[in-house]
Automatic annotation (TrEMBL), chains A, B, C, D:
Top-level lineage group: Archaea
Pfam families the record matches: Thiamine_BP
Species whose genome carries this gene: Pyrobaculum islandicum (strain DSM 4184 / JCM 9189 / GEO3)
Record protein name field: Thiamine-binding protein domain-containing protein
Domain Thiamine-binding protein: start-end pairs: 6-97
Length: 100, 100, 100, 100
């Protein structure tokens, strides 16, 4: 069960390289290790969450890890789909968008 | 002082009207009453915040108010600019973008 | 080859229902029929594109279809990753984020 | 008159500095010189536009200028509010959000 599906994009700024794979991979590791249900996309990672607090805790972990890698500025883009009338699931949202 | 500038867009879905002014005004009221430094734009409201937890608490308040108005689904878009190397201020960011 | 990966979210407003599956499925149909390489996510659809004009043409088609369905207001969120130094591919971006 | 209000954020990647003021100022210059009605925010610049093609042309100009400055990767976040039932104005949207 999930009360919201959050689509998260994390971009470290000022790293001096157009390649951000190293940082993005670390962010994926943190999400995976958190035990949350997620799915990686090209622009955003979809994550099933149950509260805004849970999102805040995840962002804290991501910031800590990136700062440990030397990052001094982070840009996040977050889209939250929060339904009160029913549970949300990543796979169900995708199946419906595909008309399956 | 602020550790991050958050640009927040809140859209209630399924309200049955193309006009969302009533809901958007309520969201602005919540931000104003929270005592945070903010600035309303056409697409996003910029807010100075000090932690992701503070953002989570604000989203909880917004959700509670919209649900009390009968809203059953909410779409948020959030851009977070988090600098570790210096404090961020809404007015300073705008002045620099304008080249003032 | 693709010069940019665009992550696109399309939300019809004022439809009177919290369910948007019918509209979202139509948008996916348009993207599929356009022959572009794409991948559906829960929050965004990733699309490989070669110019901003191509994106504009796609948005025109989407608007036309939604308006034909009776939609009177549309909210789009678009993230564009544009690299000048190398070609971008959806699958490669995902593989790198997953550390594969 | 404007058929859409576009909120635009432009971030050059791989510049090697956490400060992006120089690039952001250039983007504001391009928007100003284009003669479009706009308003600078901390996270996004709101712009009144009449077509997706007009947006594509603006992004082309911005890319050209940033590439001339040496930028090799650009991340854009774009929110488009498109109403078919009425004209949109930046100032009116802000006034309504503020409850004026």
């Amino acid at each position: 069960m999930a009360k919201m599906v959050v689509s998260l994009s994390v971009t470290p700024l000022g790293t001096g390289s157009t390649s951000l794979s190293k940082h993005v991979k670390k962010v994926t590791d943190i999400i995976r290790e958190s035990g949350l249900r997620y799915r990686t996309g090209a622009g955003f990672t979809d994550i099933e969450l149950d509260s805004y607090r849970q999102l805040a805790d995840l962002l804290d972990k991501i910031e800590k890890t990136l700062v440990d890698m030397g990052v001094q500025r982070i840009s996040y883009v977050v889209k939250i789909d929060r339904r009160i009338d029913k549970e949300l699931f990543i796979e169900e949202k995708i199946a419906r968008a595909e008309g399956i």
